Write the structure tokens for this entry.
Amino acid sequence: MPALTQDQARQLAQEFFEISKGVGDFRFDHFDSLIPEQNNALQNLQHQLSSQSNQFTALAISIGLDDLQPTLDRINQVTDDVNQAVTRLDDIRRVISIATTFVSLGAAIASGSPTTIASAIQDTFQNLEG
Amino acid sequence: MRRMKPYQVGQLAILGISLILSGCTTPEAVRQFTALAADASARIPIVFRDLSASCVRKELADRPTEEIEDVGEKISATCKPFTEDETRLMGALEVLTGYMNALNQLASDEVVSYDKEIDGFASSVQSAGNFNENQVSAVKGLAKFLADAAASGYQRKKLVSSIKSADKDVTTLCKFLGDTIGIDYVRVLNVEQDSVRTRYKNAILADSAGARGSNVLIQDRWRHELQKFADKKRGAEDAQKLLSDISEAHRLLAAQADRWSAKELYKDLTPYSASIQALISDFQTAF
């Protein structure tokens, strides 16, 4: 037997719910003429039918989620591409900053001042690690 | 380093001006829409979490009125399929929110502006080399403009291609999530409502020979419950419409992607943004 589709599961969920309501309405309409055992049996039937309706609803959602997976995968791929583009644009910023510190390092070395050189080297390493 | 000749500076200026005229504008409208869409979709989990909660409430309402019990293993097992669905639904919603957040980041002004970095670079060049202030200032200005324009061109191209390629799937995802809320969750609420109604009716019938006062209390309580169901169904309707608006606005972006102008796009997206904001406000009162 082929597996249910989402629409079929939804349809079953709705039908079981309608039937459970019908059983409940019947019980209340004939409440005074039912013996307690009949009353309990009908009430239990109503509960079971409505619980079954919920089971079919949960199944319908699950089937839909299974069918949705390729869609989710494709959107995730686009999201990854977009995030890579943002990273690329950020990388440019980082490259400019690194270039700046190398220029400063070059100037510091040219100055011959040990303190300035040490400070520039530290900045360069921090930027590279950044 | 050789000084730039005047004609070389002029060539860069012409290139810069033509980039402006080609219509590379910052996608402000895309940024605003994606921020709103991400915010809206991040509010929806409360609906999905109510799937299993409603199932549990329904099962408890079905118990005999003289029974006071915790949610036992039987009820947990009965409602477990919804708990499993919820985890996957949250995952699907996160895919939508993640996509909107990524677009929002790419559409931001900060990501395509290099002013601060170029300022820093120009200062270091000026202090390191034999360039006068005017030369550094001129090159800095053009460098900033060209870097920003090149980055904006890349940004725009990437936004256009991403939105167009994802549009069909975003529509499918929003429809699925919307139908899960508008059809499946509402049915689960209706099932719960019917169980609760049955419980109150049983209580009234059981007490038909008793004091009328208790019937009044039961009826008042039932009216209160009815209002809660009505509020949740209204919230579900809002959430479904939210997802529909997100899908429609995204479709509009994709359809007009090749001829974006920030002003027109902003004008076209405004009704969707306004609708989404109103729906969020109403949704918050329901849950």
Chain B has eight helices and no strands. Chain B touches chain A through 61 residues (CB under 8 Å). The CA atoms of residues 126 and 136 of chain B lie 7 Å apart.
